[in-house]
Structures are given as C-alpha cells and as structure tokens.
Amino acid sequence: MGAGETGFDDAYDGTPPWDIGRPQREIVRLAEAGAITGDVLDVGCGTGENALWLAEHGYTVCGVDAAPRAIEKAERKATERGVDATFLTHDAFALGTLDRRFDTVVDCGLFHVFSGDERVSTYTDGLHTVLRPGGRCYVLGFTGREPDHQGPSMTRAEVRAAFGDGWTVETIDEVAFETNFESGESPAWLATVTRR
Asked: What InterPro entries is this protein classified in (predicted)?
C-alpha cells in the first residue's frame, strides 16, 4: 500500500483540517531566514500552499502527493495564480523513482502519519536518495500532546530513530502546526535533518 492509499484522497473532496489556504508559518519563517535553499521538494504537498508560496518567492519547487485530488487542486491553484511549480501524483514510499535531486525537502504533516510504521525506513531511504549531500530536510508534525488529540503524531525519539544512518538530526524544536481546528493550531515538532 502506498503512502496515499490510506483514505487521504477522500479528504480532499472538501477542505481537510490541515489545508489552511496559506503556507505554514514555520515554512515561511525558514525561507525568510535563508534556511530553505536551491531546488525544493515538498513531499506530501496536499493542495500545494507551501510549494506555491516558495515558487512565488523564487524557488524551483516540485510538490508530490499520493492523493490525486490534492494534486488536481494544487495544479488548479498554480494556474489561477500564474505560479510556475511542478506537481506530481507520486507515492512517498517511491521517492527514488522521481529521477530528480533536491537541495531542500519540506515535509509538513506526512512523516507523522506513518512514524513508528515499519515502512518509515523506506520513506527516509527515498528522501536520502532524492536529497543532495548536505541538503536539509524539514519535518513538521503533530506532537500529540494535546489532551484531546486524535490522529497522527510523532515523537522526538521516532524522528531520531528514523533519521539514523546517513543523516544528522540538527534540531527538533517545539513549534505550532496551523490547522482549521477550533484552536487554529496544534503543538508540533519541527525537525531539521541534514543528509550526510
């Protein structure tokens, strides 16, 4: 089963809670600080808000998601906004078949969906293949620390375990993941990982 074959495509019939209609604040902050460089892969891009914002700010961006409806929406937004970004329906467990290399990878809300899963090494191996040596991967995912939290989450330990050989985990900071939930955001980890 691919990373998108978990019912996420149906979520895009409407507006899923993670689709806030703008880029995640943490991605904007990273870009404005100069931390996002070169060619960018937005893996699990959803309807493309992060990728579109980065492309609007001069980055060459490829967004991939296994949910065809999400990619259709991302492509429509790119056309409507006149933004040059590439969007592909692609399985996150097959990143090595992209036949492209990147300087930065952005993962907002994908890793936490299958953290702890035995397939996580397939995912991180794929990231290692598509990321150039010295490139950075930024992973943003829910901590699961809210008392009423339901759904995916990740721990610092899971991030460190998943990004072992061939990687250096630089930082794992507590931040906020913006959502359409009543609170408007949820506690999250932002991991900065460098490919060796």
From this structure: Methyltransf_25, SAM-dependent_MTases_sf
